[in-house]
Amino acid sequence: MNPFMLTGFSFLAFYLVVGILVAWGLRRWIISSESNGAPAQNLTDPYLIAYLRAGENEAMRVATVALLDRGLLEANGEQIKTKSSASVEMVKRPIEKAILRKFLAAGEAHELFKDAGAKAACDSYRQALLKDGLIADASTYAKRALPALMAIGLMGAITWTKISIAFSQGRHNVGFLVFLTIIFAIVLIYIWKRRLTGRGNAMLADLKDLFSRLKGRAKTLRAGGQTNEAAMLAAVFGLSALPAAHFPFMEKLYPARSSDGSGCGSSSSSCSSGSSCSGGCGGGGCGG
Amino acid sequence: MVKSKTGLDRVGIGWRGELAAGIFTHLDQIDLLEIIADAYFKSDARALRPLQTLAAQVPITLHGVSMGLAGSEAVELWRMDNMARLVNTLQPESWSEHLAFVRAGGIEIGHLAAPPRTDLNICAAIANIERVSEIVGQRPLMENIATLIDPPGSRWDEPGWTAQIVNACGEGLLLDLHNLYDNALNFGDKPEKLLMRFPLHRVREVHLSGGKWIDEPSISKEQPSTRQRLLDDHVHDVPGDVFGLLELLAQHVAQPLDVIIERDGLYPDFDHLVTQMDAARTALARGRASTAMMKAAA
Fold first, then answer.
1. Hey, is the C-beta of A227 within 8 angstroms of any chain B C-beta?
2. Chain B residue closest to A206 (CA)?
3. Under CATH, what is the fold of the domain B10-297?
4. ipTM (interface predicted TM)
């Protein structure tokens, strides 16, 4: 059966299926072709992981929350202020120094995103991730360009052929097909422009898997910066993984990103892949 | 695989998902991680990727809990295949199992149990270990277990029985010092004396954990037991006496030791576990220093 002879809803359904398959194929090609190489090392910095997951602003957000949690920053409503100028020298990481310097004068959280010092500190994370091939650089986009253009070209060719046939038969109701073509072109460009490489994507998935049990017990995390657990959890899963009850300042500072932590699932269900389950003894007597 | 951070002895901790953040943020203080192998036996290549990412950060070892190599029955091939696949995929520095039986006559006990220490059992354990070594391609380190009962029908004591098996197979010993401590206290031995009777030249790895005292189960309601037994539960801190045993061990062996802190629940702040790892390092250093002093004096 010639699919170009289909009309109306039948052809649109066919076009939709082809479009989904092409988008899926492009995504799979990108992931598989960019997933080579050994896993990255030194994934110990929560801000690096936050940058990997969601970019510069997210690294700044996680660092700000970590500093608030450690009591080096204080929040008053939507305003943040560095508690003591001495703390700028106390912290080690450049991003923390930059944030504490920025808020020596009180300001709103979002003002940080334009701060040159914080941006410069984040650039070291960008460079590290580029070096490890975890985020896309110009050569990555160039490598993706041909398959992406072929995918867009294929969808365009199908549309062109169908419109030609329709016009030759005196039908001009092609508006929705043109609309679908534009939508698929946008989707394919979005896939082409993805910030993470296949390797970065896999690395992030690995971290989420390794930390899934911690996410399951997020509600038990205490505020107060006794450990880096909160910063790590926020880095891997986002600020919404932190329980708002224990981190109340987040609601005012980042209202769109805070939550009550109820979306974290349970620890018992976080082992679906089997790769995060430890299989320990748990107190009932072990002997081993 | 990443290189170890220290020269001689190394100290690490058992990987538990609940401790992930603490482990990742303290990797500069952790020389190696031990991963429970059985949790990943059903995992496909995709599900094992996170462990490869973990292994890229720090040296790893694998620890099995369900093979039952000291049982009198031959271990099923699929269990050994699972371990071989994991070892092949993750390339750990070593892998280990227990000198225990966990099933008999088709019944899974669900617990590590001490077999009767007989000549026949020694032969069966050696056969199992030889076979699994061939299939996995790497000899396991064999770990002593804690037991609340002295296995009836035993002809050997625990150190002698252990020595027979590990010497015959030529493999290393994973000495769980808390298990040894439990067994000594539960059966009226002095822990230090019991330690010295083990084949210490075979020890490659050490486990440290904690436990609690429990009432000994009564035989009947009419005869309630008044005794207590020390249970190895992995949810309490390592007792000071066990660090003392580690110091004694380090004093009496020349080979490098890998020490793993085991914690399976009631997780404290990770800094507390770091303190326990530091205490192990201190005990090792004291033991080594003591040997050096004795050599110098001689």
1. yes
2. B50
3. TIM Barrel (3.20.20)
4. 0.77
